[in-house]
Amino acid sequence: MVTTVTFVSTNAGKYREVRELLRPFGLRVRWKRRTLPEPQTAKIEEVVRSKLNAVRDVTGWVLVEDSGLFIPSLNGFPGVYSAHILDIWGFGPLFELLKRRPRAASFRAVAGLRRGRRIWLFPGEVRGTIAPRAAGKNGFGYDPIFIPEGGTRTFAQIPAAEKNERSHRSQALRAAGQLLASLDARDRRRRSRRTKARA
Ligand code: ITT
Predict the structure, then answer these.
(1) Is the CB of 9 within 6 Å of ligand 1?
(2) CATH code for residues 4-198
(3) For 120-157, what is each residue's pLDDT tens digit?
(4) Ligand 1 pocket, mutate which of 7, 11, 40 (most atoms under 8 A from CB)
């Protein structure tokens, strides 16, 4: 029996990546599209805890994720407000703000797992710089303006599989996948011991 994880999010780009990242662990991802409340806080972990709190009604393994683009020369902006800022601004004002400031940036993600009352958090981060102009068609969100460290192309210019090798999301989701796979294996062993004991 394949273990199913319910991923609660409104973001189709995240879902596509999460599904691919959990595939090697033999996990099936079901997408539940729901807007979750996000508290006014600069701490991504707090947002994830709040999202996990809001999915208590979902049965089985539940996964949420919060992420954002953090630019140190802008005091971490847009950070946890990344989705909203992109919606209302696009990339233009960010380029304007970065004209005379260092362009170092990082994507951060925290994945949150819930099963009943237990929760687990898994962080991930990838460093890079903001490109001089948007380039590429792959991915979503800020991918066209983010060049990962050691590279020359934006996340939107490289294939999804290459982004998934090193992204903030892949670090967080691989750790979540490992935990899920190990707990799943433990449950199977327990079930099979119980069945043998009954026989
Ligand atoms: P849910 O809360 O419903 O999951 P959301 O898009 O609102 O979806 P967040 O609040 O976590 O998610 O905002 C994250 C935003 O950060 C996302 O919408 C993108 O704009 C940006 N972002 C995060 N990871 C990214 C990535 O891998 N590539 C490009 N942009 C990313």
Answers:
(1) yes
(2) 3.90.950.10
(3) 999 999 999 999 999 999 999 999 999 999 999 999 99
(4) 11
